[in-house]
Amino acid sequence: MRRTSILIGVMAAAFALALPAAHGHETADPGVTGNSILIGGTTPLSGVASAYASVARGAEAYFNYVNARGGVNGRKITYKYLDDQYNASITVQQTRQLVQQDRVFAVYNSLGTEHNLAIRDYLNSVRVPQIFAATGARTFGADFRRYPWTIGYQPSYTGEARIYGRWIQKNRKAARIAILYQNDDYGKELIAGLRRGLGPMKSRIIATQGYEVTATDVQSQVARLKASRANTFMIFGTPRYSIQSFIYANRLGWKPQIFVNSVASASNLMEIASDAGNNKRVNGTISIQFLKDPTDSTRWAGDAGMKLYRQVMKQYLPKGNPNDVFHVYAMASAYTLVEGLRKAGRNPTRSGLMAALASLDSRKNPFLIPGVAIKTGRLDRFPIEQVQLTRWSVNRRGNGRWVRFGPLQRTPG
Amino acid sequence: MRRRDNVALGARAIGVAAFVVVIAILPRFLSDFRASEMARVGIFFIALVGLNILTGYTGQISLGHGAFMAVGGYASALLIAGRPGLELAQLEAPDWLPVGDGMRDFWTIPIAALVAGAFGFLVGLPALRLRGLYLALVTFALAVSVPILLREPEKLTGGTNGLNLFGTTEDRLTGAIDNTVHIPVLGKDMTFNDWTYYLAWTVALVGLAIAWLILRGRSGRAFKAIRDSEVAATSSGVSLASYKTLAFAISAAYAGAAGALLTILSTIVTPGSFPVFLSIQLLIGVVIAGLGSLGGLMFGALFLYYLPVGIQELADIGSLPNGLQDAAKSPGMPSVIYGVALILVLFLLPRGAAGFLRRLLIPLTKRL
Amino acid sequence: MSELLQQVVIGLASGAIYALLALALVLIHRATGVINFAQGEMAMFSTYIAWQLVQWGVPYWLAFAATIALSFGGGMALQRVVIRPVENAPVLTVVIVTLGLLLIFNGLATWLWSGEVRTFPPNRPFPTRTFEIGGVVINVQDIGIVLVTLALVAALWAFFRFTRAGLALRAAALYPESSRLVGIRVGWMLGVGWGLAAALGAVSGMFTAAAFPPLEPTMMQAVLIYAFAAAVLGGIDSPAGAVVGGLTLGVFLNLVGTYADDLQNLGFPVNLEGLRLPVAFVFILAVLLARPQGLFGRAEARRV
């Protein structure tokens, strides 16, 4: 027993003596060298949410394109993105790594609502920009007073659903509304936005059914919504469940006016939902757009922006799927960042970048539909605040496409 | 006979001492970030020690230990935040829940272990009647359900977004904000990452010692008896009910401590921090480590943490030809590589690292 | 009332899908004593093969048959190459190997076909016409799926009970040493077991793509959870149990969701809508506590 206690004593002493001295302090504005700018972020590259990885890959491809043309103000952009497996605990660890170890100039394009929320306090406390958080939760644009170093990019879910609500108020006074929503903050924020937009008509929401991402199908929910005798069907879910909603509504013989949220409205998804023309329910579906749809070859056939998109994809992301609209989103976001970096000048600082991003005013983004501006201001941290209402129209030959109607709509966050 | 026992004991003691010394001085040689990585390895290690007691020694399968980590993680977060912290996050705890008024982060570790252990005891009760696959399903059900159940009372736990401690309290999180931790007794400063490393590994070593004491005592023999044959164990007077639930409770307590450490390390807790895959990883870890021995656990923990990381970094190794790099990074490939690596390791070490070590060291030591 | 019946009908349809995959799980477990966690991903991979064949111009039913044949061969090969080396390892090691296979098939499908959503031609395998009875909409495709599932269970039961091959399979699983003595080639029997299970899985996958569109790499993951639950609920070695378990689970899940709102209005503290899965598990746990071997399982005699 004496031997054991001596051993323990030795181990404890070794432990104590081994504690290292403090590491050095940080200097201001790391990440910028004479010829490069280092930015970093986190994205789910593996696991169930790995479909969103395109958001990082598309941006990287665009930066490579810009770098090949001299970069920004003589500096090449290095974009380092790490796989957080869609797990917010890992997001935190990796973001700390990017800030403390890799010394990035800014955190850019991290994906996920709870993931960006998890790092927001930390980044703001160490004054590192959290740029173009890839999420539609409105808090990233709305709460800039408390979090001045944070800014989102896409129109908020609230804003989008408000537009549906306003349109229904004006054009479907006899609406009885049923909602299928994903049972998380994304789905619930869409519902909240719809209620705001409906105003006095919000009592017309007569049925809501949620689904978990562990569900195999939403047939039961759609049947329940049909049983409520609603004549308007809001699909506030992700692509898989959106496609199913269309198909089940059709199979159950329900004929409502359908609205589908922009996350799930890409043309190729609508084609699948139309079941090769057998499903007439998709006709007349309403959604909103702000990105150019890469699967809509007729509309953007001669468009310079989409030509650029395809060129960048071919040259810098040949294994990527050009039909994936997340790539378009990624390039739009990257384009705006480049604009902001240019504006931040020859010797960019973090606060200089934030100032630049808080005073954007540009209509030149080649990946957004014409007319949609990138605009931010002293009291406005929602870069994109305009969207286009679109309706899915099927011609006599059975080909469907999104056709815009009405003026650009404002989504003030 | 006695001389050989003494040699075996001495050899093992030296091995353990060497292990402790290496752990103690490692941060000197590691970058700050690697220290935080090793802290995560430590978290896996703690959970594996516990799971090994249940699955390796008592022979009860669990596909749901991530759920116990979740319980510990949330308990720790609620205790650190306390009522004032919850209020800041626009949440509130019901009156009957003793969340307290906020506690320093490391004190929540033992409490989280107790809470998780109690939960594990409750789970162990129905498990008494179930064996093998049926038990596997029930524990799997836990892995799927507990994060959902923790998410549902939104007003208390913050729903999908969870609880962000960074935003609700600064003074109870050691070193998370200013990245400096002052150790009073020795008058030294260290970074947050080094601090979490030492916190995790201190808990790990204490946990390892406790496990060793439990396993070499009467409980350990009872556990092994149950694993080898329940009928024989019962007829030798071992109470199945007591020891099975004890094994569940102990292993859950370890997982709870690991979960609390995860919360402290990340300064947040969300339902998504404990996905189903985590429970599966833990089971992979104990099998890779080698069931029923403490020897291979470090290997298991390192494997769990570094394999996915290594695969990602594979693409950054300059010496690999470009084509191979692109292939390694393309969507889907990392998963394939992980699966192939897992199967290959098991082909080479079907009884895990400990089994391999055992075969190597049989001349020197008795069976671990 | 018709709403309740509608939910039951829908539940039976999804339950049949779970039952099919559960059948595959039961088959492998009966034949080789292991739960193959990769069954879902293998089924998904088979479905992609079928899709690719259709893309190349092969008529659907030919592709269907070819996929089943290819899956049978692939399953058999898998058993010989991947499972046999760890035959004598602890059971848990084999389980982890199947988890490795899960990761491999999932990654391979994503790598080969990307995560983009896809679909089969319409009205395959069965027409998606519907008809209505008393306010309840019934889909011909769902009827077809249920009938095929029942037919497969019956066929499987008959195979095990009445054919020599089935007997050999059962013997090889339960008493490998004695079987060898009688001349049964145990190794090949295990391979056949895996092959059959893979073929069943392929059917399950193709039906899933039709009933729960679209086709994408993650489509079988949730189905596997339910299939596992159904198999255990029914008794892990019973094909009939797998089907009863699957159908029961499908209906139960839908009823929980259907009455979640009503229950909440009656004062129930939480809305069970988001808790369908946990509630289903509680239900299964309750059944297992009453009957630890599952609904149709055999009570195990404990050997010293």
Notes on the structure:
The complex is a heterotrimer of chains A (413), B (368) and C (304). With 413 residues, chain A is α/β, with parallel strands linked by helices. Chain A has 13 helices and 15 strands. Chain A has helices at 2-18, 54-68, 88-101, 113-125, 139-142, 157-171, 185-198, 219-227, 239-251, 267-273, 304-316, 325-343, 350-357; strands at 36-43, 76-83, 106-108, 130-133, 150-152, 177-182, 205-211, 232-236, 257-260, 286-289, 361-362, 374-375, 386-394, 400-404, 409-410. In chain A, the strands form 4 sheets. A 5-stranded parallel sheet of chain A has the order 2-1-3-4-5, sandwiched between helices. Chain A has a 4-stranded parallel sheet with strand order 7-6-8-9, sandwiched between helices. In chain A, α7 links the parallel β6 and β7. Chain A is globular and about 65 Å long. Chain A starts with a helix and ends with a strand. Chain B has one domain. In chain B, 71% of the residues lie in helices and 3% in strands. Chain B has helices at 2-29, 32-57, 65-88, 108-127, 132-151, 154-157, 165-168, 192-216, 218-228, 230-235, 240-266, 276-289, 297-314, 322-329, 333-348, 352-361, and strands at 163-164, 181-183, 188-190, 268-269. In chain B, strands 1-4 form a two-stranded antiparallel ribbon. In chain B, strands 2-3 form a two-stranded antiparallel sheet. In chain B, α2 (32-57) packs antiparallel against α11 and α3 crosses α4. In chain B, 57% of the residues are buried. The mean pLDDT of chain B is 85. Chain C has one domain. Helix content of chain C is 72%, strand content 3%. Chain C is built from 11 helices and 2 strands, in the order ααααββααααααα. Chain C has helices at 2-32, 39-55, 60-83, 91-113, 140-162, 164-174, 176-182, 186-211, 221-234, 239-265, 276-290; strands at residues 130-133, 136-139. In chain C, strands 1-2 form a two-stranded antiparallel sheet. In chain C, α10 (239-265) packs across α11. Chain C is globular. The model of chain C has no long low-confidence stretch (mean pLDDT 88). The chains are: A alpha/beta (413), B mainly alpha (368), C mainly alpha (304). The A-C interface holds A 48, 50-51, 183, 209-210, 212, 214-217, 219-221, 223-224, 227, 239-240, 243-244, 247, 251-253, 268-269, 272, 275-278, 321, 323-324 and C 3, 6-7, 10-11, 13-14, 17-18, 110, 114-119, 121-123, 128, 130, 132, 137, 139, 208, 211-214, 216, 218-219, 221-223, 225-226, 253-254, 257-258, 273-274, 276-277.
